[in-house]
């Protein structure tokens, strides 16, 4: 039996996408051209193909032009850097997204650093990471931005709340911690070396799980009435029969018995990531 209210990320994302579509129409009525996002996909990774397809479909629905640049996995780093430089110069391109992961012979950090910071709609460039960490306006990574939007929609003001972020990646954990600090929460960042993670987690009013370990966060780790945001997307073998299913970093059924609010996987954070990419692309176009 579940006590927790399930946070409908899909519904929140659809509302945000409808708002963005309206804003795109309004900007065009005022004489602007449609926002344009360049999406670069290197190689044939099946998950990346699906993500890119979903991003492009969401752009289209919001009136955002997407320009896909597919290259095969043998593309050299120099060739990719040349493509990024061309997109930086292209005045018709507002946002640039280079889908990760890149093939192993390419240095992702070098590619990310080559993107013009004001076209970096992923918010991964060190300049945008620095802007976020210092409280300046810039591009915020889509996944943590989506998590903050869900928290604020669910809880309203979170100032003074105790939050724990489990995971310290540049893509989710660190920027999530910065956003929570900006919202005046009291923030703990835990990771694989943290001592007594269950005890730390039990203190928290807000738990953001972004470790990439299937169902690691257990129900008895949680404070009753807390809010759980599950960033994990783990494909695991089904118990019975063949095929795989998607699970988060949180053991959902037992966590839902303890938490007041919890995001599901799928249908939680993932759809908000895409909606926030559109939000960032609109922002990039508005600043041009
Ligand atoms: N440059 C770059 N930027 C990214 O933002 C980026 C990336 N590379 N590489 C891969 C990750 C992953 N990511 C997701 C986006 C949407 C869902 C999503 O919509 N998930 C759905 C469905 C999941 C499914 O069925 O597979 C859900 O959770 O309900 C998931 C994951 C963006 N990423
Ligand atoms: Mg992201």
UniProtKB/TrEMBL annotation:
<dbReference type="InterPro" id="IPR046346">
    <property type="entry name" value="Aminoacid_DH-like_N_sf"/>
</dbReference>
<dbReference type="InterPro" id="IPR020630">
    <property type="entry name" value="THF_DH/CycHdrlase_cat_dom"/>
</dbReference>
<comment type="pathway">
    <text>One-carbon metabolism; tetrahydrofolate interconversion.</text>
</comment>
<keyword id="KW-0658">Purine biosynthesis</keyword>
<dbReference type="InterPro" id="IPR000672">
    <property type="entry name" value="THF_DH/CycHdrlase"/>
</dbReference>
<keyword id="KW-0028">Amino-acid biosynthesis</keyword>
<dbReference type="GO" id="GO:0004477">
    <property type="term" value="F:methenyltetrahydrofolate cyclohydrolase activity"/>
</dbReference>
<keyword id="KW-0378">Hydrolase</keyword>
<keyword id="KW-0521">NADP</keyword>
<feature type="binding site">
    <location>
        <begin position="167"/>
        <end position="169"/>
    </location>
    <ligand>
        <name>NADP(+)</name>
    </ligand>
</feature>
<keyword id="KW-0511">Multifunctional enzyme</keyword>
<comment type="function">
    <text>Catalyzes the oxidation of 5,10-methylenetetrahydrofolate to 5,10-methenyltetrahydrofolate and then the hydrolysis of 5,10-methenyltetrahydrofolate to 10-formyltetrahydrofolate.</text>
</comment>
<comment type="subunit">
    <text>Homodimer.</text>
</comment>
<protein>
    <recommendedName>
        <fullName>Bifunctional protein FolD</fullName>
        <ecNumber>1.5.1.5</ecNumber>
        <ecNumber>3.5.4.9</ecNumber>
    </recommendedName>
</protein>
<keyword id="KW-0486">Methionine biosynthesis</keyword>
<dbReference type="Pfam" id="PF02882">
    <property type="entry name" value="THF_DHG_CYH_C"/>
</dbReference>
<dbReference type="InterPro" id="IPR020867">
    <property type="entry name" value="THF_DH/CycHdrlase_CS"/>
</dbReference>
<dbReference type="InterPro" id="IPR036291">
    <property type="entry name" value="NAD(P)-bd_dom_sf"/>
</dbReference>
<keyword id="KW-0560">Oxidoreductase</keyword>
<dbReference type="GO" id="GO:0035999">
    <property type="term" value="P:tetrahydrofolate interconversion"/>
</dbReference>
<dbReference type="GO" id="GO:0000105">
    <property type="term" value="P:L-histidine biosynthetic process"/>
</dbReference>
<feature type="domain" description="Tetrahydrofolate dehydrogenase/cyclohydrolase catalytic">
    <location>
        <begin position="7"/>
        <end position="122"/>
    </location>
</feature>
<dbReference type="GO" id="GO:0009086">
    <property type="term" value="P:methionine biosynthetic process"/>
</dbReference>
<keyword id="KW-0554">One-carbon metabolism</keyword>
<comment type="similarity">
    <text>Belongs to the tetrahydrofolate dehydrogenase/cyclohydrolase family.</text>
</comment>
<dbReference type="GO" id="GO:0004488">
    <property type="term" value="F:methylenetetrahydrofolate dehydrogenase (NADP+) activity"/>
</dbReference>
<keyword id="KW-0368">Histidine biosynthesis</keyword>
<dbReference type="InterPro" id="IPR020631">
    <property type="entry name" value="THF_DH/CycHdrlase_NAD-bd_dom"/>
</dbReference>
<feature type="binding site">
    <location>
        <position position="233"/>
    </location>
    <ligand>
        <name>NADP(+)</name>
    </ligand>
</feature>
<feature type="domain" description="Tetrahydrofolate dehydrogenase/cyclohydrolase NAD(P)-binding">
    <location>
        <begin position="141"/>
        <end position="287"/>
    </location>
</feature>
<dbReference type="GO" id="GO:0006164">
    <property type="term" value="P:purine nucleotide biosynthetic process"/>
</dbReference>
<dbReference type="GO" id="GO:0005829">
    <property type="term" value="C:cytosol"/>
</dbReference>
<dbReference type="Pfam" id="PF00763">
    <property type="entry name" value="THF_DHG_CYH"/>
</dbReference>
């Amino acid at each position: 039996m579940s006590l927790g209210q399930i946070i409908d990320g899909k519904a929140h994302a659809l509302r945000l996408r409808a708002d963005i579509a309206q804003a795109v129409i309004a900007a065009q009525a005022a004489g602007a051209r449609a926002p344009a996002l360049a999406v670069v996909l290197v190689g044939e990774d099946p998950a990346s193909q699906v993500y890119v397809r979903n991003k492009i479909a969401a752009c289209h629905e919001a009136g955002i032009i997407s320009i896909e640049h597919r290259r095969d996995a043998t593309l050299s780093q120099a060739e990719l850097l040349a493509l990024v430089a061309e997109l930086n110069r292209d005045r018709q391109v507002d946002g640039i997204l280079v889908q990760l992961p890149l093939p192993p012979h390419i240095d992702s950090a070098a590619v990310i650093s080559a993107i013009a910071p004001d076209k970096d709609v992923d918010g991964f460039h060190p300049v945008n990471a620095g802007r976020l960490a210092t409280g300046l306006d810039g591009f915020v990574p889509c996944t943590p931005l989506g998590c903050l939007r869900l928290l604020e929609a669910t809880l309203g003001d979170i100032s003074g709340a105790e939050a724990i972020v489990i995971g310290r990646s540049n893509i989710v954990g660190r920027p999530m911690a910065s956003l929570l600090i900006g919202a005046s929460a009291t923030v703990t960042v835990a990771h694989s070396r943290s001592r007594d993670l269950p005890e730390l987690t039990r203190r928290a009013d807000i738990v953001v799980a972004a470790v990439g370990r299937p169902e690691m966060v257990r129900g008895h780790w949680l404070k009753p009435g807390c809010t759980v945001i599950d960033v994990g997307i783990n494909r695991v073998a089904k118990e019975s029969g063949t095929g795989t299913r998607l699970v988060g970093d949180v053991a959902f059924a037992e966590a839902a018995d303890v938490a007041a609010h919890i995001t599901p996987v799928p249908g939680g954070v993932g759809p908000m990531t895409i909606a926030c990419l559109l939000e960032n692309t609109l922002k990039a176009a508005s600043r041009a």
